[in-house]
Write the structure tokens for this entry.
Amino acid sequence: MNFKIRRAAKEDCKDISRMIMDLAIYEKMPDQVKISHEELERDGFCQNPLFECLVAEVPEEHKSNEGFTVTGYALYFYTYSTWKGRAVYLEDLYVMPKFRGNGIGTALLSKVAEIGKKKQCVRLQLSVLNWNTPSRDFYAAKGAQDLTVTEGWHAIRFDGQNLDNLANEAPKD
Amino acid sequence: MTFLDPWGQESQKQGSWRGTIHVHSLKELAEYENLAEHVKVTQKDLEQDGFSKNPFFHGIIAEVPEQHRTKEGHRKVGYTLYFYSYSSFVGRAIYMEDLYVMPEFRGKGVGKALMSKVAQLALAAGCHQLNFTILNWNKPSMDFYLGQGCFDATATIGYHCMRCEGEALKQLAQL
């Protein structure tokens, strides 16, 4: 199947938002999605964007049953390792189920790696759910190491009321 | 006893120390985490990447008054380094890359002060999450953080941290 990987434009945010929800459903946490295409437009297409995004597009003749030609996306941003320097974090990588097996996921992932390399990034990092075997296998086949398994790293988070409480304890300036 | 210096104010005026404390503390943190040989970043890298027009990271220093300086003369006794990230579910977030306090200054609220300052800055910037990672054997840190109200997304939800680097990353970029 023919497809094209390109940088997302502001107009793609509705499609990206649609696929973010699909991904959230797949990850069994649809109630966690709090932002819509409006926040994506504001945060990804301003003067200092908070993220970058690539989309996969198929020709009109291969569009989905619902009429979508944008059938995959990769959303990422730049991070920093105090040990190694610049890095890129792949927040989401998603391909619509009917379009899998055509190399779209690989193309999106390697494009992110290439973009990161051009910016002198020395690492590409991401998270995957432990029960998500197809994804774990996909990334392992691409040479990713599972640092939770090999080194014992755990992802920790403050949000909601706990984040508010912590912030309220900050020393006064 | 401590004051926090939001990066770029007092620090910029002082000039010459910039970067010194960080490589020193980075190496101590790396040694604690048994991974010292992995520190490749130099003082120059930190200066370039953290103090340009669009910095890759931000930092906060904990500094003690002159009368509490260490035997070696250090007044900067802790730091945290963070950057802005993005969650496709909730939007803007903050990632705390490092939090470190020199051993003889622990147990005095310095770590808590640094972390809560990051949380305050996170909320002021419209962030909805403060994320970071810790090693599962690092019990003092685990206990400290869980005591502050965070949750372990690896233990509770099953997130695994993955990384591609070196030769694997090079090959991936060439596909």
